[in-house]
Design a protein that fits this description.
Helix content: 25-40%
Strand order of the largest sheet: 3-5-6
Number of domains: 2
Largest sheet: 3 strands, antiparallel
Number of strands: 10
Number of helices: 4
Distance between the termini: 16 Å
Shape: elongated
């Protein structure tokens, strides 16, 4: 079970990172740390305010359509700076949907995966011949007064990392929080 969970969770991190990297690719232009996205008016190329408390829908100047574009610019062959257009021509776009999409940009996903990898590494299993059950290298065993061994692995922290991916193939319910 130890290696199954380790391999499966690592594969989930890899897939999230890969999708975010691909969403940041436009032809041969690419931002390795992931693009930051914002909604812009397609007529004026200016950022639009996305706030469901101010307006139910996101729209450009005078009702013009909006598009989701990268904040990062890429040089063109004729000297202009171009932005990756992820979504174009949106009219009557619900503000809640628009805000959620922009908040979950590739740069944020890549940062989140990096943080999850660090947490997962810190809470890795310790395997030894003296103890038949792996223990967490970070979490103390609160049931043991001597604290000579860590919490049985997977610890709650690792179990919580699986929650985001519990709808993915290969997930086992026993890996989740109990």
């Amino acid at each position: 079970m130890v290696y199954d969970l380790m391999n499966w969770l690592t594969a989930q991190f890899d897939a999230s990172e890969r999708w975010a990297q691909e969403a940041s690719r436009h032809g041969d232009r690419y931002t390795p740390t992931g693009e930051h996205w914002r909604w812009e008016c397609e007529d004026t190329d200016t950022a639009v305010t996305v706030d469901p408390m101010l307006s139910e829908y996101v729209e450009g100047v005078d009702g013009a359509p909006v598009g989701l574009r990268s904040v990062e610019g890429y040089p063109s062959t004729w000297g202009a700076t171009l932005h990756h257009i992820a979504i174009r021509g949106q009219e009557e776009l619900p503000a809640g949907v628009a805000g959620h999409i922009a908040r979950q940009d590739p740069a944020r996903t890549i940062r989140a995966v990096a943080a999850k990898r660090r947490i997962f590494e810190r809470h890795g299993p310790i395997l030894n011949d003296l103890n038949p059950y792996p223990v967490c290298m970070c979490c103390p065993n609160l049931d043991d007064d001597t604290n000579t061994e860590g919490e049985r692995w997977p610890c709650l922290t690792v179990r919580l990392l699986t929650v985001e991916y519990d709808d993915q193939p290969g997930y086992r319910p026993e890996w989740g929080p109990q």
